[in-house]
């Protein structure tokens, strides 16, 4: 029976695989349990790991260290690929305001952590662990552990213990803050929904306009002649109904505009007023009205799946002259973009194409339009990105006043490279597209291995630390770090910036990188997606700041 004992208590490959499988599977099962609609989700993997470690189930130290770091890399790299396409656009207009508010929550949390460190004499590594748990940010925990290990050559178990102690009540605390703000600010949900409909956050990234040509300055001019007069505003003339013969056709750069012509324009919300005024005025014609008029034309979504198209601009494809069709919109990562000539196309883009059915069929062959092609994994860019991310994370940066060089580490380096590759990879013909399910699989596997390793490493002394090492007090400090920044910034956001409640709670969840809070926010706002937009607007920048701040606190105070 020695083989059973070695399988359960040994350090072999079979033991390691079975222990990982047990901890991860049990944690995921327990994470599905909800109490009043709230669950800790995948974080239960951490607690199962602690439980297993407490009862003597261990992994080989080298295996534990490798799997923890590799899991973290997979997690942050997958997150970077997901949030990358919207990272820089999240700083535009209202997104800039939201990101400033979210960054304020991050820095207030760091300041609160520093104050508690001096007030309680708790070592800074432990406080950073408590802070990471209090803001439910796992990559920050990984960055703090790595920074400490770089300095001392060994790990510090109290970082993970502080995280594990603070995390559960942090999830509850964030959701409680969302609820309390509703009553403190006396929110009328119906009124907030009505206000949101007029708010820029609820607007689409594209706008369809039906306009009548009334401006004498453009009578007799082609669309190509008119474009420079609009100071290169982003717009596409999709179709034109000629006033002289009531003939409808697909517009091209050579189409001549005459008085009384009616045109269907796709533009951005910000450019809508200028284009409407310049052309002459809006008219009451919906997309359905146009569809009735142009029965011979078809509007269809076509997928870009051919690798040869990756990185090419709409202008280079010249579909209008080659096939007699128009690209009016490009849907990328769930966001509609205006199909302006210099827009570079990427694998996975969904193009809205208007034209004859046979022409669209031929265009579909040119672009690929093979859904099964998107299901094939593109592994080369992933591993190139991981290689470059680890390389970037390992480069030391010297800063005045900090004795130890700062590194982005295995959390920060891959995150930044993934964001940059998702945006710039198309220029170098790298296909960074992954299906949502593939991205989620990579991300969940990575975070499961990371949390399992953290739990198994911290489990041996966890109960002793809680009962006799001040762990009960850590829970209170975590609550303070969770609540104080949220209430201060929430008050400013609502009273000073007049932020809509739905957007506010989305920003709150995003500033804490907390999916359970987002799930709750979405559940109380079924008629709009403002919480999700607010969350997505601040999540990428907040994730980056959380990783950086956790590392800097370790380096500054050690």
User: How many individual helices?
Assistant: 24
Strands of the widest sheet, in order across it, are: 1-6-3-4
Structural class, from helix and strand content? alpha+beta
User: Can you give the mean pLDDT?
Assistant: 79
Rg from alpha-carbon coordinates = 27 Å
Contiguous runs where pLDDT drops below 50 for at least 5 residues: 200-204
N- to C-terminal distance: 49 Å
Beta content comes to 5-15%
Note the main sheet: 4 strands, antiparallel
Description of the molecule:
The protein has 558 residues and is of the alpha+beta class. The chain is built from 24 helices and 10 strands. The strands form 3 sheets. The chain has a 4-stranded antiparallel sheet, sandwiched between helices. A hairpin with a 2-residue loop joins strand 8 (326-332) and strand 9 (335-338). Helix 6 crosses helix 8 (157-184).
Write the layout of secondary structure elements.
Layout: H1 2-9, H2 13-31, H3 44-54, H4 61-83, H5 94-120, H6 124-134, H7 138-152, H8 157-184, H9 189-197, E1 207-212, E2 221-222, H10 223-226, E3 235-241, E4 248-250, E5 256-257, E6 262-267, H11 272-279, H12 287-293, E7 298-303, H13 314-317, H14 319-323, E8 326-332, E9 335-338, E10 350-355, H15 357-367, H16 371-374, H17 379-394, H18 409-424, H19 436-458, H20 462-468, H21 471-495, H22 501-511, H23 515-523, H24 530-557
Antiparallel strand pairs: 1-6, 2-5, 3-4, 3-6, 7-10, 8-9, 8-10
Helix pairs in contact: 1-2, 2-3, 3-19, 4-18, 4-19, 5-6, 5-21, 5-22, 5-24, 6-7, 6-8, 6-21, 6-24, 7-18, 7-24, 8-19, 8-21, 8-22, 8-23, 17-18, 22-23, 22-24
């Amino acid at each position: 029976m020695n083989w059973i004992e070695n399988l359960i208590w040994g350090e072999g490959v079979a033991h390691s695989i079975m222990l990982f499988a047990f901890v991860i599977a049990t944690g995921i099962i327990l994470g599905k349990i909800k109490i009043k609609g709230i669950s800790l989700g995948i974080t239960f993997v951490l607690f199962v790991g602690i439980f297993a470690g407490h009862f003597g189930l261990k992994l080989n130290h080298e295996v534990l260290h490798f799997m923890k770091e590799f899991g973290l890399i997979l997690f942050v790299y997958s997150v970077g690929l997901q949030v990358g396409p919207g990272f820089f656009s999240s700083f535009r207009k209202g997104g800039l305001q939201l990101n400033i508010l979210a960054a304020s929550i991050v820095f207030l949390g760091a300041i609160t952590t520093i104050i508690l460190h001096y007030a309680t004499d708790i070592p800074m590594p432990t406080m950073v662990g408590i802070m990471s748990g209090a803001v439910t940010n796992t990559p920050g925990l990984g960055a703090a552990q790595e920074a400490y290990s770089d300095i001392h050559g060994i790990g510090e178990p109290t970082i993970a213990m502080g995280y594990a102690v603070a995390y559960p009540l942090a999830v509850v605390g964030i959701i409680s803050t969302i609820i309390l703000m509703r009553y403190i600010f006396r929110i009328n949900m119906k009124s907030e929904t009505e206000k949101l409909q007029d708010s820029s956050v609820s607007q689409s990234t594209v706008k369809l306009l039906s306009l009548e040509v009334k401006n004498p300055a453009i009578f007799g001019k082609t669309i190509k002649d008119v474009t420079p007069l609009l100071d290169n505003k982003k717009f596409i003339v999709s179709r034109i109904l000629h006033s002289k013969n009531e003939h409808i056709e697909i517009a091209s750069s050579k189409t001549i505009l005459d008085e009384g012509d009616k045109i269907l324009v796709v533009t951005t919300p910000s450019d809508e007023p200028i284009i409407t005024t310049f052309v002459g005025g809006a008219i009451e014609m919906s997309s359905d009205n146009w569809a009735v008029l142009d029965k011979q034309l078809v509007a269809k979504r076509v997928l870009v799946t051919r690798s040869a198209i990756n990185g090419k601009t709409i202008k280079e494809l010249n579909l209008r002259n080659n096939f007699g069709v128009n690209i009016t919109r490009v849907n990328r990562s769930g966001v509609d973009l205006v199909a302006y000539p210099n827009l570079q196309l990427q694998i996975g883009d969904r193009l809205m194409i208007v034209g004859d059915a046979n022409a669209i069929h031929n265009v579909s062959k040119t672009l690929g339009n093979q859904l099964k092609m998107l299901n094939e994994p593109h592994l080369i860019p992933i591993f190139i990105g991981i290689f470059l991310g680890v390389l970037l994370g390992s480069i030391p940066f010297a800063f005045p006043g900090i004795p130890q060089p700062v590194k982005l580490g295995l959390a920060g380096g891959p995150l930044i490279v993934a964001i940059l590759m998702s945006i710039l990879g198309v220029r170098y013909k790298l296909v960074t597209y992954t299906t949502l399910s593939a991205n989620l699989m990579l991300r969940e596997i990575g975070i499961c291995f990371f949390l399992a390793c953290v739990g198994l490493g911290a489990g041996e002394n966890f109960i002793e630390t809680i009962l006799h090492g001040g762990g009960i007090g850590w829970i209170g400090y975590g609550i303070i770090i969770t609540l104080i920044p949220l209430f201060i910034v929430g008050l400013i956001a609502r009273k000073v910036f007049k932020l809509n409640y739905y957007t506010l709670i989305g920003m709150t969840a995003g500033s804490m990188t907390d999916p359970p809070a987002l799930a709750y926010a979405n559940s109380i706002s079924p008629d709009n997606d403002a919480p999700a937009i607010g969350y997505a607007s601040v999540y990428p920048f907040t994730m980056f700041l959380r990783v950086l701040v956790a590392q800097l606190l370790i380096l500054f105070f050690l």
